[in-house]
Write a structure and sequence with these properties.
Elements (H helix, E strand, L loop, with lengths): L1 E9 L4 H12 L10 E6 L9 E7 L2 H9 L1 H13 E10 L1
Antiparallel strand pairs: 1-3, 1-4, 2-3
Helix pairs in contact: 1-3
Length: 94
Amino acid sequence: MIRHIVLWSFRPGTEAQREEFLSGLQALDGVIPEIRRMEIRRSCVPGGTYQACLIADFDDLDALDRYKHDPRHVAVSSLCKSIRDTRAAIDFAL
């Protein structure tokens, strides 16, 4: 099992697009078969380094790679790329 964690900070003034992105990402759960478990969390600390994170589990690195290249994920991800300041990610075996 592989856990995939991504953290994002977003540019000021992109709150509506941020919610559109996070809702779109959450909507992939149950649609892309490689996702075993997914959580989207928003920071409760104003002014923190990151405003949101994804925690997702996949069977293996191949499943994670298929998810990353799935056209549905690519479409949602393109919105994120247009509004994010920074992104940090880590993948590790459980």
